[in-house]
């Protein structure tokens, strides 16, 4: 055989082997791809992929009947305009801090009205605190979620006394009987237990959001849908400028409310918190369990249920934070950064 002929044969064979190897590799990778496609194909035609992802989602910009809802008109947000320049309006974990001047109620209300949330406002009126209930509810009628679907839930040891108040209210009020607690501490700690138990029994069926407030609160200005969020707490008005070392967290490791010295964001006040039923259930259950464990170990946390509440919020960050404007006390005066006093807390005229 001549030399050129042998070279030609070798060239042709080489090309063929190269071609076969490249095809083999391609089939291998195609097989990988084919597996993926095959797993998607397996869902047709019975299931349309993605439909389950949309279940329960309440969107409203395209109503089913085609008519457009009435829109709120407002000026365009200006990226260069700072709503408040003297206070923090966003936490380092990106939760908004709600201050007067940072939101437009009309935009928020529009969203709220379309979604029709049900809100449960819970309040304890045990023993002499029943005397504060009338004023509390009258102020809630006037200022709390005016345009919303609100139920009031009153925890009391004396339903007859509550009925005797002859409250004139426009919303449903349910009286929930709780034990006669032996003292103030038991009543305050018991609130977590009652909230937890009633969420299991009742709240989960009746409302979307739960709000817990003290009875010694009188609302002075509107408290609206701007407060709604998955888990919302209020910065304590007495400590909002304090350094971490001065916050009254529980620092003893023996308590379940223990927070190490180098941890803690804000100090929150346990007299006002809210969230979705599910998040409030988890919060109150965790605090209740912490309180029970402390009790079994013969230790009382520094600020009762508020210590457990603060511990929870260090490790389960609130998704929205309300400024001290939402739980102000007149006794704290009128500092410049408090632009509006939405409530007066702590006036106990029994
Ligand atoms: C200075 C201080 O220590 N302040 C604490 C105290 O605030 P306060 O002095 O605001 O507590 P408080 O006397 O208002 O009690 C809390 C709430 O529990 C209810 N209640 C209490 C006792 C009772 O016999 N009957 C009854 O119904 C009632 O709704 C009352 O508003 O307690 C709060 C409980 O969230 C926080 O721990 C506060 O940091
Ligand atoms: Mn109080």
UniProtKB/TrEMBL annotation:
Main location group: membrane
Keyword Glycosyltransferase assigned: yes
Residues the record marks as active site: 306
Keywords, sorted A to Z: Glycosyltransferase, Manganese, Membrane, Metal-binding, Signal-anchor, Transferase, Transmembrane, Transmembrane helix
Transmembrane segment boundaries: 6-25
Topology in membrane: Single-pass type II membrane protein
CC cofactor note: Binds 1 Mn(2+) ion per subunit.
Protein's cellular compartments: Membrane
UniProt binding sites for an alpha-L-fucosyl-(1->2)-beta-D-galactosyl derivative: 236, 306
InterPro entries: Glyco_trans_6 (IPR005076), Nucleotide-diphossugar_trans (IPR029044)
GO BP of this protein: carbohydrate metabolic process
Gene Ontology cellular component list: Golgi apparatus; membrane; vesicle
GO molecular function: hexosyltransferase activity; metal ion binding
Binding site for UDP-N-acetyl-alpha-D-galactosamine: 129, 214-216
Gene3D superfamilies noted in UniProt: Spore Coat Polysaccharide Biosynthesis Protein SpsA, Chain A
Cofactor: Mn(2+)
Residues reported in the UniProt entry to bind Mn(2+): 214, 216
Entry's family note: Belongs to the glycosyltransferase 6 family.
Protein name: Histo-blood group ABO system transferase-like
Organism: Microcaecilia unicolor
Taxon lineage: Eukaryota, Metazoa, Chordata, Craniata, Vertebrata
């Amino acid at each position: 055989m001549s030399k050129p002929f042998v070279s030609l044969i070798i060239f042709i064979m080489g090309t063929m082997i190269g071609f076969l190897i490249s095809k083999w590799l391609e089939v291998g990778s195609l097989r990988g791809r084919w597996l993926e496609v095959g797993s998607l194909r397996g869902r047709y035609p019975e299931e349309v992929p993605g439909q389950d992802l949309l279940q329960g989602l309440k969107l409203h910009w395209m109503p089913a009947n085609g008519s457009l809802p009435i829109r709120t008109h407002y000026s365009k947000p200006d990226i260069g305009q700072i709503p408040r320049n003297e206070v923090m309006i966003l936490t380092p974990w990106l939760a908004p801090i709600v201050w007067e001047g940072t939101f437009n109620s009309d935009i928020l209300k529009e969203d709220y009205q379309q979604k029709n949330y049900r809100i449960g406002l819970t309040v304890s009126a045990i023993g002499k605190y029943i005397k504060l209930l009338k004023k509390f509810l009258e102020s809630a009628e006037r200022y709390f979620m005016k345009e919303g679907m609100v139920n009031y839930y009153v925890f009391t040891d004396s339903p007859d006394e509550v009925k005797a108040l002859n409250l004139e209210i426009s919303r449903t009020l349910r009286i929930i009987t709780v034990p006669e607690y032996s003292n103030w501490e038991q009543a305050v700690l018991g609130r977590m237990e009652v909230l937890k138990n009633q969420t299991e029994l009742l709240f989960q069926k009746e409302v979307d959001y739960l709000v817990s407030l003290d009875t010694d609160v009188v609302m002075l200005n509107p408290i609206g849908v701007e407060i709604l969020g998955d888990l919302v707490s209020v910065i304590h008005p007495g400590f909002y400028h304090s350094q971490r070392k001065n916050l009254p967290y529980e620092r003893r490791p023996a308590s379940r409310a223990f927070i190490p010295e180098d941890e803690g964001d804000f100090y929150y006040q346990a007299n006002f918190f809210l969230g979705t039923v599910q998040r409030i259930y988890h919060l109150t259950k965790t605090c209740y369990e912490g309180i029970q464990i402390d009790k079994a170990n013969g230790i009382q946390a520094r600020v009762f249920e508020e210590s457990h509440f603060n511990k929870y919020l260090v490790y389960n960050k609130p998704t929205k934070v309300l400024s001290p404007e939402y739980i102000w006390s007149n006794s704290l005066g009128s500092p410049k950064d408090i632009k509006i006093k939405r409530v007066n807390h702590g006036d106990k005229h029994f």
